Amino acid sequence: MAEFTAKGANILVVDDDDDIREIVHILLAREGFTVREAANAEQALRRIDPLPDLVILDVMMPGLSGIELCREIRTKAMMPILFLSAKTRDVDKAEGLANGGDDYLIKPFSALELTSRVKALLRRSMVYQPQTAAAPPQTVQSGELSIDLTTGAAALAGNPLTLTETEAQLLRLLAQHRGDVLSAREIYEAVWKESFLPSANNTVMVHIKNLRKKLETDLTQPKYIHTVWGKGYYLA
Known about the structure:
Layout: E1 10-14, H1 18-30, E2 34-38, H2 41-47, E3 54-58, H3 66-74, E4 81-85, H4 90-98, E5 103-106, H5 111-127, E6 139-142, E7 145-148, E8 154-156, E9 159-160, H6 165-176, H7 184-191, H8 200-215, E10 225-228, E11 232-235
Parallel strand pairs: 1-2, 1-3, 3-4, 4-5
Antiparallel strand pairs: 6-7, 7-8, 8-9, 10-11
Helix pairs in contact: 4-8, 6-8, 7-8
């Protein structure tokens, strides 16, 4: 199978460290990506139009932090967002994912790790391009929730849901296996397309929590995504 490149994809890199921005820019440009830069959140908000295909965000920046900027971007668009941070604790990673991030990469990082994460996020994003008019939709219906298996789009009581690319793929996976309990390992390796590590369990849990916030009216008694303790998750 040919290697995925997504050459020409437009990436916005936001980091207050000039050296980091330069390194990331060079690495991504070598892969054929078009790169824009911003030194802080304020610059990023001015340079985000036209919308990039992916955003790389430093977490710790003067002024508006990367977390705050991510929340602001999420009010406008759903492109993949990759956090870069020197913070290594699981709670820091969970905060980034809970606030709209799709992935979290710890500094210092290798060139291979960065480009692999970027390509994986773009690959997942490009799966959800609108289908042609000739392609019949494949829809899973669970109560008031409908999920289009072709596009990854979902609606609740007829109202379209605003999902990140990762959330859309996660929900789509659960819909494809509706009623089957999928382990955190199965979910992570299918959605993130990386080998499962113990810390990945928390990544899956945070994204499940984010999805539930968008689907459920009562988080203590979920109607759609259920947890089977010690085993995994399933869509009712």
